[in-house]
Fold these 2 entries.
Entry 1:
Amino acid sequence: MKWAVLVGGTGSNLHALLEQGIAVSLVVSHREGVGALGIARDYHVPVEVITAKTYPDRAQYDQALRYALQKYQIDAIAMAGFLRWLTPATIDVYGGRILNIHPSLLPAFPGLNAIEQAYRYGVRWTGVTVHFVDEGKDTGPVVAQLPIRIDPGDSMATVEERVHHAEHRLYPKVVEAMDKGWVALGHDGKIQWQVSQEEVAKWVSGLYSA
Ligand code: GAR
């Protein structure tokens, strides 16, 4: 599978995916000058910077995005800090082949600044979620999650560090599982595991014990 990683931030998840050996054929950033672009260049991955200011609306933005994805014959997409909602036209084309990582235990704390939202709310557990992208906002079917404890007295910086650490453990594993065809999104919109129940259980317990 040829993967595109959509970014917009420091690129630590992109880095984790590249270190896992995922075949990243394209990195698209919605922002100029972000750390993720430097990481892509270090790994000799082609980059396209597509900024919103160049396009009058979301439809035309996404048209440019699809053009870039088609140019590189991309099969699957991993969103990693790309802080834009994809349009239905893009989801139609890549439906069931778009993953996103979100820094909370969805459906809690969707949207921006999820770590801060959870911290300020005062929850004792938060975490990270990898899900398939649908037309909703952080609503797509969940593939896997990792929980993170927040203890009284933890600073937000500590929680952020834990969340990012969990992201870097979880995302490469899920992308790899999809890449190998172990997990897919069924036509019924439900997660389908193509491996045995025992193997899924082993895979999940591997995530928790690492
Ligand atoms: C990650 O924490 C990711 O979960 C978050 O952006 C960060 C990107 O960091 N995404 C969202 O909040 C999406 N709603 P990175 O550039 O270091 O990978």
Note: The chain has a mean pLDDT of 96.
Entry 2:
Amino acid sequence: MSKGSVKRVVVIGTGGTIASRWQGTGYAAEAAGGEVLAGTALPDGVEVSVRDLFTVNSSQLTTAQQLELLRTVHEVLADPSVDGVVVTHGTDTMEESAFLLDLHHHDRRPVVFTGAQLPLDSVDGDAAGNLYDAMLTAATGRDIGVVIAFGGFVHAARGTLKAHTLDPRGAFADPSGQPLGRVKFGEIAWGQPRERAEVLPVPAVDGDAGRTPRVDVVMHHVDADPVLFEAALAAGAQGIVLVGTGAGNATPEFVAAVERAVAAGVLVAVSTRVAAGPVAPMYTGGGAVDLAAAGAVLSGTLRAGQARIAVLAALLTARCPQERAAALRRIVTPDAPDAPDATAAA
Ligand code: ASP
């Protein structure tokens, strides 16, 4: 970075393994952002300030906290002297928070999520390297939306998921796409830019967990019946992600359950258990063709966690069931803004 052009990056701490230490029986997040940053070199010409928001393992996050993070990032970016934002976050649900923020991100300046697979107190941990790469990406990246910098790669939030439970290098990947960039020796080699969905307004919902819509995930498998799907409806779900087999398939019983749910105003998305590739309307007899005809929205290449975030964002954005389904279609297929009904492709 050229001398004389100091870049200002704000690091927002939320916890995760990058802030975790041994508690006697296992690891848990406890370190403040300043402590996490203390072990990390700063990229040349970058000035950093820290804002601590939460100190939690990300498996414990709530929708209300994710919305608070969203609002905090917008608040930070309201300062024109800030060049970029880094969010330190647990890896378990990083793909969900990053995607939610990406759907609402309208700024040329990036928001860069990072974390660690190895706890803060490990001798050869990945925290310092990931944080360095994230700060570099935040200071220098433009028009990339919300990204995840991890293990030497920069991934677009959309489509990226936690791909390995423990490996630091292969922690995140987009099984259906390529990384946005590669970080090596303090430089970022950028690849192809990625399509982003139309930007959604920041939801007006307040931070009260009771006021955020319930969105459940139900998986299909051999012998599955819609009992858990119906249980989600009975629990008050306003949205459900059905994780189908193959290209997004289930059974005629699930199709009937989806039809009832949609008739009751519930937003249903279909994702798949398969690692890579899009959900596709190929099969009838309970397959994605019938699920789409019953009113479910096929979730493209989004997997369960991000499909759930897409449903949540559609529920928070639009009021009536038709508008919500249309909003969800636009979110899951950003390259087709007037997204046709999935069944049209059959
Ligand atoms: N359980 C941790 C979390 O998501 C895992 C991690 O950060 O790597 O908070």
Note: The chain has two domains: 8-190, 215-332.
